[in-house]
Every structure is written in structure tokens, then in C-alpha cells.
Amino acid sequence: MSMESVANSVQLPPLDNPHERQAVGGELEVVLQELIGLSLIGKQLHWSVIGPAARSVHLFLDELVGEWRELADVVAERAVTLGFVPDGQASAVSDGSRVEPVPVRSVVDHAVIWELARRVAAAAERVRERLARIGAADLVTQDVLVDVVRKLEQQQWLLRVQLGDRA
What we know:
CATH class: Mainly Alpha
Pfam families: Ferritin
Oligomer: single chain
InterPro entries: DPS_DNA-bd, DPS_DNA-bd_CS, Ferritin-like, Ferritin-like_SF, Ferritin_DPS_dom
GO molecular function: DNA binding
CATH architecture: Up-down Bundle
Keywords: DNA-binding
CATH superfamily: Ferritin, core subunit, four-helix bundle
Family: Belongs to the Dps family.
Helix content: over 70%
């Protein structure tokens, strides 16, 4: 083994080929953009919520946004660990995130929960699809994305129970 290949193997986790590294990094970048998109939508709804449960929804949205930001950081750090620098800037998130925007107006508390539950469910499904594409190319990345799906599905459940009979 040459010194150069030893240095590369020390610097980057091993994947079977460089194309997989780029592909896995690209999948992580899209997940990062989805999570940032959710956090931005969450803050918009946080500022817009009205109604009898507005205070509790407002506080819950703060928790969710914090969780999405933490997950985004873990996802981005995994990409960088693999040697891929993801783009989480506003323009990239605008172009890459498939999180549906919300109207810029006041939104009643139960409608905030409904709108967010739909978006979280859709984001969880999209991350699941990425899990399938990554397959066994990188089990550590797969594990990171499993954690993302687990958290999104838990949030989906917590949102759904708040809807009660409206779900």
C-alpha cells in the first residue's frame, strides 16, 4: 500500500468506490436540506400560530425546530466525515428541499398541527426512500438516516395525537 492510499484511508472512512462516496454524500445533502426546510417551516408556523392552544403549540414548535436542527447537524457532519461538503445555504435549501411551503398568514393552532404533521410524514417517507438507495454502500450513514426516520416518525405520532379525532 502506498503512502498516499494509507493517508487517504486514514482521513476518510472506507467505501467500496469513490462514486459511492459522492452518491452517499448527495443523499445526505438532500436530507440535510429537508431538515433545514422543516425547521424553517416550523419557525414560520411558530410565528403565525393563533388560537386557544397557541402557547402550547408555539412551545412545541420550538422543540421540533431544535430537534430538526440537531438532526441536520448530525447529517451534515456525516457527509463531511465521508469527504463530501453539503450545501445547507438558503438558496440550496430552496432548490433542494421538497418540504411544501406554508401560507404567510396567521394559522389556527389545530391547523398548524395538521399542516406540520403532513409535512413531517412526507419528509419521513422521502428519507426512507434515501435509505433504500444507500443500501449497504455505507451502513454507518444508513444508521444515521435510520435515526432521522425514527425521530421524524416519533414527531409524526406526537403531532397526530394532538389532532385527536381530527386526524
